[in-house]
Design a protein that fits this description.
The chain contains seven helices and 30 strands. The protein is of the alpha+beta class and 450 residues long.
């Protein structure tokens, strides 16, 4: 009998404990779900009066661009003036609401009453490209034929040119407002791409504009020269009997290997890759073109004398054109626009989203085929590579592949020792459209990526 009584007593005690536990858990759940949208409880709260927690704040509603949502948005969003808080059922316009989308921190000042109810309204913030362009003059004069170098100070002006994503806004001449500091290096903006991303060329660890510090090293473009294949940033079979086999994207060029290694070490391993666009690409335009130089055709394979479209836009019948027609549209976008797998366009053959400047971009920036220019921002006093094929010369015992370079006097040149020559390597990347920037774009106060 005593044993049965003890068992009943234990059972009664366990039931009571269980009921109490359920009540405690329910109270905790109720406390943390007083806000309509539970997920905002992960958002840090800053206040200046009383040490309340986010659980003491009731987020009644969240709207983004006029649509009601369940969570505070991440990314480039801003609180609007429509956001407000209520205390004891009355709107309190003395409460200031701000939101830092970098740290995802909500700032409520002053926060003096437990149970304060807030209504948050967000809009998409301006992209970095839109911020940069906001005070610029847009000039259309470089969207077509170009008749010479550009040497003047063009600060405050960009040039609209069509590209594969829409309209690019190109820096040209000698601007002082296209400096960027990113990943521990200084860069110059080449253009704001049509998708809003920002295209940069490497300048080094300082704002010195000339000398070897403006490049990561010197290298051959390809370690071998005796086939049309070697004009490729990637290439196919050498000694092939067709254009398609020659220019398939199966082998890395020497310079691509160097750029990939640099990107892995300096961007990926240092935690900066989330700021780099995986949409924009790099055009290695291998379309062939006739009528450029006497004796050269359009076969584009083996050791056949061949001229390529980038040269054809600048030269005719063996002479530099007086009116050159650079283009930001890739002639063969499916094969020659190098992109990573996440892009909506291109060949998706890149391991990392990094490449080189093109000959077309050099001309748009103020260079000119066959003419020197020491006054535009791409002049460094060094020879460095573009990624634009020029021609394959069949003369000599084996022939030689040529890719455009910018030479020491700023001239866009296609005559040199060919792809095996050691020239400067200046990485080109594209920053995402939705990054946050500060600064003015000058060398003393560059745009900084946060």
């Amino acid at each position: 009998m005593e044993i049965e009584t003890l068992k009943r007593s234990h059972l009664k005690r366990n039931i009571i404990i269980g009921v109490i536990a359920v009540l405690i858990i329910s109270a905790i759940i109720l406390n943390f779900t007083r806000a309509k949208y539970r997920s905002v409880a992960t958002t840090p709260l800053i206040h200046s009066e009383i040490n309340y927690s986010l659980a003491d704040l009731n987020i009644v509603a969240i709207t983004v661009d006029g649509e009601e949502v369940d969570t505070i948005p991440t990314g480039n969003y801003e609180l609007t003036e429509e956001s407000y808080c209520e205390v004891n059922g009355n709107r309190d316009d003395n409460i200031s609401l701000t939101y830092d989308n970098d740290t995802q921190t909500l700032n409520v000042v002053p926060f003096t009453t437990k149970g304060t109810k807030c209504y948050l309204d967000f809009v998409k913030g301006s992209t970095a490209g839109e911020q940069i362009l906001a005070d610029k003059t847009i000039d259309t004069s470089r969207n077509g034929a170009i008749t010479g170098t550009l040497t003047t100070n063009t600060t405050g002006t960009v040039y609209s040119v069509a590209d594969d994503w829409g309209t690019s806004y190109v820096y040209a001449g000698a601007p002082t407002d296209n400096w960027v500091q990113f990943a521990g290096y200084y860069w110059r903006i080449i253009r704001i791409n049509g998708d809003g991303s920002i295209r940069l060329i490497y300048n080094g660890t300082s704002t010195a504009t000339t000398g070897t510090s403006t490049q990561i090293q010197t290298s051959a473009y390809n370690s071998t020269y005796n086939d049309n294949a070697y004009v490729g940033y990637m290439y196919g079979s050498t000694g092939a009997s067709s254009y398609s086999a020659t220019h398939a994207n199966t082998n890395n060029s020497t310079i691509k290997g160097i750029l990939d290694s640099w990107y892995k070490t300096n961007i990926v391993d240092k935690g900066h890759s989330d700021k780099v666009s995986t949409e924009a690409g790099f055009c290695n335009d291998r379309k062939t073109q006739s009528g450029v130089m006497s004796g050269y055709g359009t076969l584009g394979y083996g050791t056949n004398a061949t001229t390529y479209a980038p040269l054809g836009r600048l030269m005719s019948n063996g002479s530099w054109k007086s009116s050159q027609t650079p283009s930001l549209k890739c002639s063969q976008i499916g094969n020659d626009m190098f992109t990573v797998s996440g892009s909506s366009k291109g060949n998706h053959k890149l391991t990392y989203p990094i490449g080189l400047i093109t000959s077309d971009e050099v001309v748009l920036a103020g260079g000119f085929g066959g003419s020197s220019n020491t006054s535009y921002y791409l002049h460094t006093g060094e020879y460095y590579w573009t990624m634009s094929p020029s021609y394959f010369d069949s003369a000599g015992p084996a022939g030689n592949a040529y890719v455009f370079i910018v030479d020491s006097d700023g001239n866009l040149s296609n005559y040199d020792d060919g792809v095996t020559d050691a020239r400067g390597v200046r990485p080109v990347i594209n920053l995402k459209a939705d990054i946050t920037i500060t600064g003015e774009g000058t060398s003393s106060n560059p745009y900084k990526v946060s």
